[in-house]
UniProtKB/TrEMBL annotation:
<dbReference type="InterPro" id="IPR010104">
    <property type="entry name" value="TonB_rcpt_bac"/>
</dbReference>
<feature type="signal peptide">
    <location>
        <begin position="1"/>
        <end position="33"/>
    </location>
</feature>
<dbReference type="InterPro" id="IPR036942">
    <property type="entry name" value="Beta-barrel_TonB_sf"/>
</dbReference>
<dbReference type="InterPro" id="IPR012910">
    <property type="entry name" value="Plug_dom"/>
</dbReference>
<keyword id="KW-0998">Cell outer membrane</keyword>
<keyword id="KW-0732">Signal</keyword>
<comment type="similarity">
    <text>Belongs to the TonB-dependent receptor family.</text>
</comment>
<keyword id="KW-0472">Membrane</keyword>
<dbReference type="InterPro" id="IPR037066">
    <property type="entry name" value="Plug_dom_sf"/>
</dbReference>
<feature type="region of interest" description="Disordered">
    <location>
        <begin position="505"/>
        <end position="524"/>
    </location>
</feature>
<dbReference type="Pfam" id="PF07715">
    <property type="entry name" value="Plug"/>
</dbReference>
<feature type="domain" description="TonB-dependent receptor plug">
    <location>
        <begin position="77"/>
        <end position="178"/>
    </location>
</feature>
<keyword id="KW-0675">Receptor</keyword>
<protein>
    <submittedName>
        <fullName>TonB-dependent receptor</fullName>
    </submittedName>
</protein>
């Protein structure tokens, strides 16, 4: 098959000239598993040789930055759909260390940084949250680690991928599509290479270079890729391995308890004093190990079988050590109020002073998370007499293990020799501004012990609480089966017809156990703090004991289980989906109004059957305290529904190498898996405005997907001047959200809800009518926007600027959707009545300037996004919406490739800096100047070398 028609220009480059029929075939093969990008031969290059079976072997004529750019341009230009793409500059060399960082440079694409590590992990496309993307690996749907469907892209090492294509318009042959986009990650395919290729690489890294006294982290990233062909090129093998290690840089996190002041009596008058503070030093060590194996068997030009395996394991241990306490007030029954002495009063404010009875809480918390991904697939393709038949079987499984320990250390509840705390520099409204000192040495293990220091479990009348532990596992298992056929024909504008069936079975469940940590015997029990480590938090300047509590359950601590309604109903569930899809698509090619066009038209018919298992809590005998589990019983739910999703993509070839595209279609995105759980609980709300009433919360096993109609328009102009290639593009889109899933309070009759037992107390009125907070399918709204893109090598202007170039894009997105704030606290929202779409930044801008010549490759890239509503994991291990301030990050890279005439041929030296401007992660409450959390990550530096032979 001939993909390109054209002649070679100077320096072996290829002039872009597209054959419509070949372009359609190219996209078809990509969807079926034939890698659209050969790592050792960019798609933009012409076929120059064949093997013994007549199969094409691509040859390299472009290298480095331009190679990656031109391959991505070629994918975009040749696609029948509206797409964006990135392509590796060489084997294992995507533009960034992580997939999320690379694709967030594309128009209309943004990334949310992880608040612990600062690395990009979640992707939003066109103003929609990560759950609205369909994410594939080699064309197959992938499992996810959280309660939702958004993929954590740091589970996919960038070195193992060759191309990533983002489909912005629907395509009937594409499974697992999303309303926002479909992101298809492609690995290398060994038979696309002309010869054996081996590449090794190593980077030494330093993280969190703050220059503010905090310790930086160190680490490394090593890679190995082996690609070979055997048996007269009928067998191909590709093996890859990546190992990443980060010891974790120190981060300073401070919480001024909202900034409000406390009060105390001094010389007969009430004065302002610091209220309370919390200061932590955090480390976030991480590791990632990934391996990939691909085996291809192609005995002749008509048949090929590919087996691919992908394994990745991430560990992330976020450790916090710090001090928290109320300065003059109380935080529990064991913590008496302090008495103010030695104070300096200015305008009613104690700018300095000392308070007695201070009981500080030394915090040593850790959240250890391990995500393990295993993905595999077997694909066979047979061509015969104008027919292409493809079979595909695949699986993807992610296991998310989490262990969260929160421990308290200080003086026991019955201690009498309590500490004092003194301060200077207090202005009346910033609890973090003063300099604090204490009479007790909180780094002295003979005085500071593991204990319930403040009576947080209820004191003498409750349960001891020397800490808290939550241990859970979430497992997502996806299996898919696909059979399809394509037949070439000539029937008017119809050049081929493709049809097939796909079945996807998905099972996801969460199992969590948690409760109070107790130590010793009785309410005042204690135990020594292990080890000898000490940490000083920069703001307080007070040294505190430090230790790692991971694994201490059963040795130091005992568990007092806490089994209340949210734990039983929200954190323990199982959901299954069986999705059967039949599709039909025709490839089009013809002429309309004097313009040549190509494209496709088709539809999917989808039948979904979903089932779920959960619990209903009987609140009639449920105290909700540790050691007093709430009675519950298992409940199941089931629902099925059908969808018809038509789609059309047309691309018109305009004069002077221009293209105008239009995409129309209907798409869907399935709701979060935990929303489908059945069960919940109900109790009497005696504080209701209208009087006592039944109130409860539950999932909804009858939920159906988000559905939308989409219109996409794109104009593209391609250039090829002086051997350099580039393009400019302008795109517009409109999405009409027919349905949207909202968690809202609604009036229900609990007698028919399945949540009310015979023993459940009723309000005095005896009414079973009440308010239930549950996710429902509501009416939607619209999203619209524009995207402007330019990729311009300066050699197009003059040959004297050969090697220089720029990539820049800008997107502007608006939405009419405003959501209720149900489930969000006032602290998260700042009291606002509605919130915008999660993930929506009004404006996003990306720019990259590069230079490449004589072996040198240098690039500087900047990403800027506006404020948005993001998602973080809260202290209860649930995903929580929160406002995140926009930011700008700047990264730089420099590489040197030794020339082919050198004895060091194949060796590349590299250096890079990430987050050069030390852009912070800032959460705010409703108004952007109401800061809830401010985290500084610092810069990351790396130097390395790679060798290819």
């Amino acid at each position: 098959m001939k993909i390109f028609n054209g002649k070679h220009a100077r320096n072996g480059a290829l002039v872009f000239k597209l054959s419509p029929v070949a372009a359609g075939c190219t996209v078809f093969l990509s969807a079926l598993g034939a890698n659209v990008y050969a790592q050792d031969a960019a798609v933009s290059q012409a076929v120059q040789a064949t093997d013994a079976n007549g199969n094409p072997i691509s040859q390299v004529t472009v290298t480095g930055i331009r190679r990656g750019i031109e391959a991505a341009i070629s994918i975009k230009k040749n696609s029948n759909s509206i797409v964006e793409a990135i392509s590796a500059e060489d084997i294992g060399k995507l533009p960034d260390a992580t997939v999320a960082e690379s694709i967030s440079r594309l128009p209309g694409v943004t990334a949310q940084r992880d608040k612990s590590s600062g690395r990009a992990s979640a992707i939003s496309v066109r103003g929609l949250s990560p759950d609205f993307n369909g994410t594939l690996l080699n064309g197959r749907e992938q499992a996810t680690s959280g309660d939702g469907r958004g993929v954590k892209f740091d589970l996919y090492p960038a070195e193992m991928l060759g191309t990533i294509t983002i489909y912005k318009s629907p395509d009937a042959s594409l499974m697992g599509q999303g309303i926002a986009s479909t992101i298809d990650q492609r690995t290398v395919m060994p038979l696309d290479f002309a010869k054996r290729t081996v590449a090794i690489g190593y980077k030494s890294m330093r993280f969190g270079e703050h220059n503010n006294g905090l310790a930086s982290g160190t680490g490394y990233r090593s890679t190995l890729t082996y690609i070979d062909q055997f048996a007269n090129r009928t067998i191909g093998v590709a093996l890859g391995a990546v190992k990443f290690n980060d010891t974790g840089a120190e981060q300073f996190q401070a919480d001024g308890w909202g900034g409000g002041s406390g009060s105390a009596t001094y010389n007969g008058q009430t004065v302002k004093v610091p209220n309370g503070f919390k200061t932590d030093v955090q480390r976030d060590p991480q590791t990632n190990k990934g391996v990939m194996g691909i085996l291809q068997f192609r005995p002749n030009k008509d048949f090929v079988t590919t087996v691919d395996l992908f394994h990745s394991k991430n560990t992330d241990n976020t450790k916090k050590t710090g001090l928290e306490g109320s300065v003059c007030g109380s935080t529990g029954s064991y913590d008496p109020n302090g008495v103010l002495t030695n104070a300096t009063i200015v305008d009613g404010v104690a700018t300095s002073g000392t308070c007695t009875n201070f009981k500080g809480d030394v915090r040593n918390h850790i959240e250890a998370v391990t995500d393990t991904l295993n993905s595999w697939g077997i694909n066979s393709r047979l061509r015969r007499d104008g027919w292409t038949v493809t079979g595909d079987v695949a699986g993807s499984k992610v296991k998310h293990d989490s262990n969260r320990y929160e421990t308290t250390a200080g003086q026991p509840g019955d201690a009498t020799n309590l500490s004092t705390i003194s301060w200077t520099g207090y202005g009346g409204n910033d609890n973090l501004a003063p300099k604090y000192t204490t009479s007790l040495n909180y780094a002295d293990r003979s005085q500071v012990v593991l204990t319930d220091h403040a009576g947080w479990g209820g004191g003498l009348t409750g349960n001891p609480q020397a800490g808290y532990v939550a241990v859970g596992v979430t497992t997502d298992d996806v299996k898919s089966y696909r059979l399809s056929a394509k037949h070439d024909l000539e029937l008017g504008p119809l050049t081929a017809v493709e049809f097939g069936v796909n079945r996807t079975n998905r099972n996801k469940g969460r199992d969590q156990n948690e409760g109070n940590l107790t130590v010793g015997t009785g309410p005042y029990g204690s135990a020594p703090v292990p080890g000898t480590d000490v940490v000083v938090t920069p703001q307080s300047g007070i040294p505190v004991v430090a230790w790692n509590p991971l694994g201490s359950l059963g040795t130091i601590y005992q568990l007092l289980p806490k089994v209340d309604q949210p734990i039983q109903t929200d954190k323990n569930w199982d959901v299954s989906e069986k999705v059967s899809t039949g599709y039909l698509m025709g490839n089009l090619e013809g002429e309309l109004f004097g313009l040549s066009y190509r494209g496709n038209v088709g539809a999917q018919y989808i039948h979904t059957s979903q089932g779920s298992t959960g619990s209903v809590v009987d609140t009639s005998n449920c105290a909700g305290n540790a050691g007093q589990p709430c009675p519950a019983y298992v409940i199941q739910g089931h629902h099925s529904y059908n969808d018809f999703l038509p789609s059309m993509n047309l691309g018109f070839e305009l004069p002077h190498d221009q293209m105008f595209r239009i995409g129309l279609g209907k798409t869907l995105s399935r709701t979060k898996m935990n929303d489908l759980r059945p069960g919940g609980g109900v109790s009497v709300d005696r504080g209701h405005v209208g009087g006592a009433i039944l109130s409860g919360s539950a999932g909804n096993p009858n939920l159906e997907p988000f559905r939308a109609k989409a219109l996409d328009l794109s104009w593209e102009k391609y250039f090829s001047v002086n051997g350099a290639k580039g393009y400019v593009a302008a795109a517009a889109f409109y999405k009409k959200l027919d349905t949207y899933v909202l968690t809202i309070p609604k009036e229900v009759d609990f007698a028919t809800s399945g949540l009310l037992s015979a023993k459940t107390p009723l309000p005095p009125s005896g009414s079973t009518i009440g308010i239930l907070n549950t996710p429902v399918n509501g009416s939607g709204g619209n999203i619209k926007g524009i995207e402007l893109t330019a990729s311009l090598p300066f050699a197009m202007v003059t040959k004297y600027l050969t090697g220089f170039g720029v990539e820049v894009n800008y997107s502007n997105t608006l939405s009419s959707v405003n959501l209720q704030t149900t489930g969000l606290t006032v602290e998260d929202t700042g009291g606002v009545s509605t919130i915008p779409l999660p993930g929506l930044s009004h404006t996003v801008t990306n720019a990259r300037v590069y230079y490449e010549n004589a072996g040198f490759r240098v690039s500087v890239a900047a990403k800027k996004r506006g404020d948005f509503l993001g998602e973080v994991s809260d202290f209860q291990d649930n995903n929580q919406l929160t406002f995140i301030r926009g930011n700008t990050t700047v990264d730089g890279q420099m590489n040197y490739d030794f020339p082919a005439t050198s004895a060091l041929k194949g060796l590349t030296l590299s250096a890079a800096v990430n987050n050069f401007t030390n852009s912070h992660f800032i959460r705010f409450a409703g108004k952007r100047d109401s800061i809830a959390e401010d985290i500084s990550f610092g810069r990351t530096y790396s130097v390395g070398a790679s060798y290819k032979f």
